[in-house]
Amino acid sequence: MQKLKKRSWAEPFKIKTVELLKVTTREERNRALKEAGYNTFLLKSEDVYIDLLTDSGTNAMSDYQWAGLMLGDEAYAGSKNFYNLEEKVQQFYGYKYLVPTHQGRGAEHLISQILIKPGDFVPGNMYFTTTRLHQELAGGTFVDIIIDEAHDPTSTYPFKGNIDLQKLDDLVKRVGAKRVPYVSVAGTVNMAGGQPISMENLRQVRQLCKNHGIRIVLDATRLMENAYFIKIREKGYQQKTIAEILGEMCSYSDACTMSGKKDLLVNIGGFLALREHEQEIFEEARNLVVVYEGLHTYGGLAGRDMEAMARGIEEAVSEDHLRARIGQVEYVGEKLLGIGIPIVLPIGGHAIFLDAKRFLPHLKQVEFPAQTLAAELYLESGIRSMERGIVSAGRNKETGDHYHPKLELVRLTFPRRVYTQAHCDVTAEAVEAVYENRESVKGLRMVYEPKYLRFFQARFEKLP
Ligand code: F0G
To answer: What's phi and psi for 16, nearest 5 deg?
Structure first.
């Protein structure tokens, strides 16, 4: 008798409620795709089979979180759920001050308006769409200071989210520290393929910033996932808990913006949090939040949403949870690598990123290879993914030209605790089917382009 050779891990949960999926025909998908202008953001969710558009707000909550919804204190002011959330943020992230916001970009808006003056420069480890736009709307210019390896999808460097200290130092020397209000540091860098930053690098950035009197604002959106990578990849952290690593990362920052819709296992919510020495900035944020989000003890959220997020923090720091979450992404990535599909290496924390430049080498970047590939995958299988290439990068606000990012990617993003291993197998098989027919795939042209964050609503037509 043949023996099973390995001991597998399994999801650290069982399923209590299910949501039925709809399978569509190719004809139906063809129609839906045309109606959506070949933009997966414009598809109706009911026409999607496996939804890998994003891991944002698409998480499955636990029974503990659902129970928390019933304990929502919907008082306009001073909801007890706010205080529960504040306590968990203090306990796990180590920030004293909390300003809840409806989601991450609400927090980005507040901090950008408070800290950035027209003419300032905001360096960061690669841009994120909403983060950069808020910096620009406040009058700042984003400067990419991530290490070069991050722009190379084939580099297997384990911490491709790291900051190039030389690039940071050069910028500060060139423009002067006074015009750099803060360094924007993201954990598991989304646009680089879900790549982590190392603790050592963060510590060095902190030292450099301290020398120049510059703040660090963390994008803590997927920081717990970053902490997990540090635990398994960085020397000296194997014996530490995720909570300890998380706390140490935050200790090297002055504030953080947070989209709770990712790490924190909820469907909506976010916050701005600040360390004890930032009382003045906190006071300012508390003033502004009332204008844009809601009173400072709810920030655009229902009491029950804050409760679900507070409980989400407790569950998200669990190592078992993170091993399964990141392990699922790795499972799909290994499968694709096994059949020779070009993906970003190393396999990221929240998503597999197909390298559209190598997948469809016959398409020019202005024919939108990643947008095309996302559309083809949907047509083939009903699986929805997202473009992360030239469309997402947008245009240079001075010249009006497209940015031409080195990375032209399609993101297959895994919601937390939602899909099973069988869904993963189906996904890998669908990508394989598109790959087999790749040579016949034609590109797209853009026929409608919105002014801001164009990838959300842009429309395309097939090239003849
Ligand atoms: N920062 C990062 C790194 C993000 O990935 C996101 C959202 C935000 C900030 C903004 O947070 O959506 O709550 O306002 N990312 C989603 C995604 C949209 O699909 O990657 P938000």
So the answer is: -110, -35
**With 0-12 CB in 10 A as exposed, 13-18 as middle and 19+ as buried, what is 464?**
exposed
Residues 54, 58, 101, 129: which is the catalytic one?
129
Domain ranges of the chain: 26-55+319-462, 63-316
26-55+319-462, CATH topology level = Aspartate Aminotransferase, domain 1 (3.90.1150)
pLDDT of residue 94: 98
| Topology at the third CATH level for domain 63-316 | Aspartate Aminotransferase; domain 2 (3.40.640)
Decide if 13 is catalytic.
Answer: no
Q: Which of 388, 411, 416, 417 is catalytic?
A: 388
Q: What's the pLDDT at 398?
A: 86
455 assigned to active site: yes
pTM to 2 decimal places: 0.95
324: left (phi over 0), alpha (psi -120 to 50) or beta: alpha
Query: Tens digit of pLDDT for each residue in 109-145?
Result: 999 999 999 999 999 999 899 999 999 999 999 999 9
Would you say 417 and 322 are in contact if contact means Cβ atoms under 8 Å apart?
A: no
Predicted confidence at residue 136, as pLDDT, reads 95
C-alpha distances (whole Å) from 143 to each of 13, 87, 164 are 42, 35, 12
Q: How far apart are CA 271 and CA 169, in angstroms?
A: 30
Write the residue with the smallest CA distance to atom 16 of ligand 1: 56
Tokens read off for 396:
């240079």
Mean pLDDT of 190-209: 97
Q: Which atom of ligand 1 is nearest to the CA of 350?
A: 20
